[in-house]
Amino acid sequence: MSSELSDEFLGQIAQQVLTDTAFIFSEPADEVIPWEGDVVKTSLEFKSPQKGTLSVTAPRQLGIELAQNLLGMDPEEVSQDSSTAEDALCEIVNILAGMLLHRVYGEEVVCDLGIPQCQKASAGSEEDDDRFHWSLVVDEVGRVDVEVKLEDNEV
User: Fold this and answer.
1) Residue 15 near residue 128 (C-beta atoms within 8 A)
2) Which residues contact 30 (CB under 8 A, 6 or more apart)?
3) Under 8 Å CB-to-CB from 64, ≥6 apart: which residues?
4) What is the C-alpha to C-alpha distance for residues 57 and 133, in angstroms, rounded to an integer?
């Protein structure tokens, strides 16, 4: 294992991916802030030395900003009703999973990534001690939660 997975390490990788890939700047959340607007949870299952799920829960506005920055779209092109925002969230979760698993398990370990799934999330936060979790604050978007839940069984 190259790096030990921890809450803080997960947060650092998430911040790096948002900044380097989509020019979206964030900072760690000092306190739990309420969700704003429509909230979407995007999850991706993976198989590596351990099975698990990576999830990003964020206001739909993050997907709109990601689509604008990743695809070079004008704000008018990213409609609130289109799937473009969800597609952008799925892509950033895919990128985040690839970078995280590479940094945790190294170059020699084969990791299989599932297909990201996007769904409307409830406003409540799931509390689970058996996960790695980090909350970020993104300007003009609000709270973004990143979590990894590992299964007990190794692959």
Assistant:
1) no
2) none
3) 75, 78, 80, 84, 85, 88
4) 11
Number of CB atoms found within 10 A of residue 49's CB: 14
Residue type, 92: I
- The gap from C-alpha 10 to its chain's centroid, in whole angstroms, comes to 10
Residue among 68, 63, 56, 82 nearest 135 (CA) = 56
**Residues in CB range of 154: below 8 A, 6 or more apart:** 49, 50, 51
Tell me what the mean pLDDT of segment 95-105 comes to: 94
pLDDT tens figures, 20-52: 999 999 999 988 888 878 899 999 999 988 899
- Residue ranges per structural domain of the chain: 7-27+44-154
CATH T-level assignment (fold) for domain 7-27+44-154: Chemotaxis protein chec (3.40.1550)
Instruction: For residue range 5-17, list pLDDT tens digits in order.
Output: 999 999 999 999 9
For 117-137, what is the mean pLDDT?
A: 79
The CB density around residue 68, as the number of other CB atoms within 10 Å, is 20
Q: What is the pLDDT of residue 147?
A: 95
